[in-house]
Amino acid sequence: MALNQLVITSRSATFEIDNNQAYKCEENYDVLLNGTVVIKNENKNVFSLFDLQPNTSYEIELVTREKRFCQTTFKTNDEWLCLNVKKFGAIGDGIHEDTPAIQGAILAAPKGTTVRIPKGEYLVAPLFLKDDITLQLDEGAVLKLSHDRSRFPILPGYTLANNEEEEYLLGTWEGNPLDMFASLITGIGVKNVNIIGKGTLDGDAQNADWWDYPRVKKGGAYRPRMIFLNQCENITVQGINVQNSPCWTIHPYLSKNIDIIDIAITNDKNSPNTDGIDPESCEGLRLIGINFSVGDDCIAIKAGKLYMGMTYHRPSKDFIIRNCIMQYGHGAVVIGSEMSGGVKNITVERCIFKQTDRGLRIKTRRGRGKYAVIEAVTFKNIVMDDVLTPFVVNMFYFCDPDGKSEYVWSKEKYPVDDWTPHLGGFHFEEIVCTGAEVAGGYFAGLPEMPIESVSFEKVSIHFKKEAKVGTPAMMSYTDPVKHLGLYFMNVREVSIKDMTITGYEGQAIQTDKVDRIKSNFKG
Q1: pTM check: above 0.85
Q2: What is the percent of the chain where pLDDT is above 90?
């Protein structure tokens, strides 16, 4: 069993135990740092250390009741300077606004600086990052978002350059370049930034009116995020708690090499559109060791609507999602529905999905465009507990103003054109689903563009005896069901190997216009 280094900064480190368990170890352990216990009775596969010294070597060891294991050494990064925001006039009493002081500290920080936010509650409007710094929130430090919209800059959706050809993209809303409020932490074109610590970002949305008009501009713009990273590169978010978001919680946009590691995201179950993490048209993303409990999708991978897809065709690609727990959201890992730039090479493994409406959820529709290609999606070593429908792939998703039009819902074969999306291969392996209610899996491709392939290997689905009736996919004219096994419509190839389903009603596997099916299904 190995111990892998995930993140090393000047004052923190995160490690991952390399085992075959989803999110948690079989046995609790203590963490020793230079021979001293610094974490007791831990059970997660991912853990972090804070309050370390820069440019310092450490020895780390894990200890259980029975043995010592995973011994390794590491060295923290160098740091040129540490700036305390209180020396810039921040008060941290939760009453006086501390935006100027904290923003001043960020702007004053030279390359290699840690901007430290000590214990306290800091009332702030949006803060903007700069290159080559670390923003550290100490334990007990809270950045609380102001309710006063007049204190929020507006990010225009796009501005035309002087050559009248190029666009400068700033704001975005549900896949289109539209005006939005700047976020609590806003990064525009920044590189080499760490946001670390045991502190908290608190949107305080439950005490504001952000959720009252979720899809309407109010004050001239759409709702802010908690962290918005636009055209950024080499960004690490590590350790912090993020809660009570006005909208999507963390939104990387047109960015590269983003690590979001060992954080917690908590939003009210009934809060509208408070997704956990929504990477949009990004490349090279690691989401590891995250605890989600949100009011919408836990992770929603996006790539813009038709304008963005046809103009820029920037896919979301090369993502690793591992050792996370997703709780109470609409979907655990979701792709779409804004995916016109395409999504590819997504690997999800060693995760727990708990009490979400759906596990994997792919949603698209006619009108997303020819670059709207989803392919190479793999789920492996996943535990799903009380997930209503573990697997959903839906090409009739009824989103947008025309979402319930015949063009979207029709099961007739339309011409393949520049508006037609395409779904490639999906592979599911070593997955245990208990407490399903509505359906085990629901796969609905377009008649003119079937889903290329779906394969199951070493997958078990067990239905709850007392199940609620529900709709497996958000598409028009779909009857509510319960205890539906696997349903495939318009799929070119289905492969089922070493799979069991118990507690289903009717036929375990139902197909409609499936070209090839290979199965050794065990009832």
Answers
A1: yes
A2: 94
